[in-house]
Design brief:
nine-stranded mixed sheet; about 400 residues; mainly beta; 6 helices; 28 strands; four-stranded antiparallel sheet
Length: about 400
């Protein structure tokens, strides 16, 4: 190879050295910048890791009691918000930043909702004023067992002044204080209301005396995620409101075979009745109307009377106890018994016709009755009705009623 050819070959071999060297220098510069001791806000990946959040992003089956924490290794947290999403109320989790601004934790005693999705939004800042934000989500555990409370009265109902707010739970409650605390009954105008437990499955609320007519009552049911028994959690989160209508109190004198109907303290009518016979007498005491049926079937088998009766079309039936005491229309007895003798199996009968009629005593009373009205029986040979039989809680004095609260 001559001298000119050798020089050209050498030039071709050395030509790439400039660009390669430049690329290596650029790479070294980038590596030096990423691994240096600058702000924690430096690189994109570093920004995400600068704010450390527990639980991890998209974590599932997180326990209701955490752990839940937001922390920065240096710098300080400027703001932290943890909120429940996919929920109508979108409630924030209460919490606070530490004094040094390096961490955030939920308020003491905070429990997360179960089967719920949460979002965490945090903003941090370093000494130079550079900010970085991080957004994560997580989902809490789904409980295996749930319970609900079946309640009276219905939402938006207008009721009588004797109405008792009553809950029957679908699972026995062992943590009664937690459950009672989660149900709040308030009135306008204000009046003290207390709860009373009947066993482990029923909780009733009432004031010291009958509600004043016109009272607006609000029942806030915050049972969702409340542990009513080990491993059993409530599922309800709702508000129920009802209005107290006029006062109607009816007094049945079993010995005189009469019922005096008083509206707002004034005697409206005295109706002839037939009460329970000597062998199947009617309970004494104050009872509250809990159901009303234009017509219903009454079968002795359902209340322990065997096959003594089965009437498929009892008109104007008003339930007074859970055990089967009704005030109802009676078309099968002779007219002479009303006002003169007691022939029923414990119910209170008013004269009626088959199919019912608004012009009969039974129809007249039915049309003027509300759920929550009070019927009081006196001068019967039977005992006083139990306070847990229907809405019989008015047969307990106020001090005994309050003693049945788990919050006393």
């Amino acid at each position: 190879m001559n001298h000119v050819a050798k020089k050209a070959a050498a030039h071709r071999t050395a030509a790439p050295a400039g660009p390669v060297l430049l690329a290596v220098l650029v790479l070294l510069t980038l590596l030096t910048g990423c691994s240096g001791t600058g702000s924690f806000m430096g690189g994109k990946s570093g920004s995400r890791e600068a704010i450390r959040i527990v639980p991890a992003d998209r974590a599932e089956d997180v326990p209701a009691d955490g752990p839940l924490e937001v922390r920065v290794p240096d710098g300080r947290l400027e703001s932290v918000r943890v909120r429940r999403i996919e929920d109508a109320r979108k409630r924030d989790v209460p919490g606070a930043l530490a004094g040094d601004g390096r961490s955030w934790a939920p308020a003491k005693g905070t429990r997360l909702g179960l089967a719920a999705k949460y979002a965490v939004d945090a903003v941090a800042v370093d000494g130079a004023g550079h900010r970085v934000a991080r957004h994560t989500t997580f989902t809490t555990a789904v409980p295996e067992h749930r319970f609900i409370g079946y309640f009276k009265p219905e939402n938006r109902a207008t009721v009588g002044t004797g109405m008792i707010v009553s809950f029957e739970f679908s699972h026995p409650v062992t943590r009664r204080a937690a459950v009672e605390r989660a149900i709040r009954v308030t009135a306008d105008p204000p009046v003290a209301v207390a709860g009373h437990w009947f066993g482990r499955s029923r909780l009733d609320f009432r004031p010291a005396a009958y509600w004043e007519p016109g009272t607006e009552v609000t029942v806030d049911i915050g049972l969702r995620d409340v542990e009513g028994a080990p491993g059993v959690y409530g599922s309800q989160d709702k508000t129920v409101r009802f209005t107290v209508g006029r006062e109607q109190i009816s007094r049945v004198d079993a010995a005189a075979h009469t019922m005096e109907v008083r509206r707002d303290g004034e005697l409206v009518s005295t109706l002839p009745v037939t009460a329970g016979s000597d062998s199947t007498s009617t309970y004494n005491g104050r009872m509250v109307v809990s159901e009303m049926h234009e017509v219903t079937r009454m079968n002795g088998d359902t209340v322990g009377f065997g096959g003594e009766y089965d009437i498929k079309d009892v008109p104007h039936a008003i339930r007074l106890t859970g055990s089967g005491t009704f005030l109802h229309g009676n078309y099968w007895s002779d007219d002479e018994v009303f006002g003169s003798s007691n022939v029923s199996h414990g119910c209170i009968g008013l004269r009626d016709v088959r199919g019912g009629s608004g012009s009969t005593p039974a129809g007249w009373f039915f049309d003027r009755t509300l759920v929550g009205d009070v019927v009081e029986v006196v001068n019967s040979r039977d005992r006083t009705v139990s306070p847990d039989n229907g809405l019989g809680g008015w047969n307990l004095g106020w001090s005994r009623w309050r003693a049945g609260s788990a919050l006393r």
